[in-house]
């Protein structure tokens, strides 16, 4: 029952019918990136995160609990791969806010995403 309720809460924030696209502003140190987060489906949960001109990675281990959306990616930059875990909360106005963390739990940066398209 808790899982069903949590999924219903997420579906009120995201589209239950198709894909949702978010513009994600990610701040790492004094640098800001404009990323693209695509939530493709909810059954099963899947999507991609793109850092334009750098990499695009499928979302792994995505789960939603209540007002949270958590997932990981494998980032590929300058010939190296590393895992990044996102912990986001839903906000009014179809927005997400949270952190991007390294595999060891250390803070990589902050994320604020705004939904820009829903199908």
Descriptive overview:
The protein is mainly beta and 119 residues long. The chain has a single domain (2-118), classed as Lipocalin, CATH 2.40.128. Helix content is 10%, strand content 67%. The chain has one helix and nine strands; from the N terminus they run H-E-E-E-E-E-E-E-E-E. The chain has one helix at residues 2-13, and strands at 20-28, 31-42, 45-51, 55-58, 60-65, 68-77, 80-91, 95-102, 107-118. It has a nine-stranded antiparallel β-sheet. Strand 2 (31-42) and strand 3 (45-51) form a beta hairpin. The protein is globular and about 35 Å long. Mean pLDDT is 85; it is low at 1-12.
CATH level 1 class label: Mainly Beta
Order of helices and strands: HEEEEEEEEE
Could you tell me the strand content as a percent range? over 45%
Give the termini separation: 28 Å
Strands across the major sheet, in which order? Answer: 4-3-2-1-9-8-7-6-5
| Amount of helix | 10-25%
Low-confidence runs of at least 5 consecutive residues: 1-12
Number of helical stretches of at least 4 residues: 1
Morphology = globular
Radius of gyration: 14 Å
The average pLDDT value, as a whole number, equals 85
What is the total number of structural domains? Answer: 1
Architecture per CATH nomenclature, i.e. the level-2 architecture: Beta Barrel
CATH fold-type name: Lipocalin
How many DSSP-defined strands?
Answer: 9
Given helix and strand content, the structural type is mainly beta
Largest sheet: 9 strands, antiparallel
């Amino acid at each position: 029952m808790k899982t069903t309720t949590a999924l219903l809460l997420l579906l009120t924030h995201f589209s239950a019918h198709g894909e949702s696209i978010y513009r994600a502003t990610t701040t790492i140190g004094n640098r800001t990136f404009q990323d693209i987060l695509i939530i493709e489906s909810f059954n099963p949960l899947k999507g991609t995160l793109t850092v334009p001109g750098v990499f695009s990675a499928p979302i792994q281990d995505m789960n939603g609990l209540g007002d949270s959306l958590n997932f990981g990616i494998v980032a590929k930059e300058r010939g190296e791969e590393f895992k990044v875990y996102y912990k986001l909360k839903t906000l009014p106005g179809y927005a997400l806010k949270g952190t991007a963390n390294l595999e060891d739990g250390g803070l990589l940066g902050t994320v604020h995403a705004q939904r820009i398209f829903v199908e």
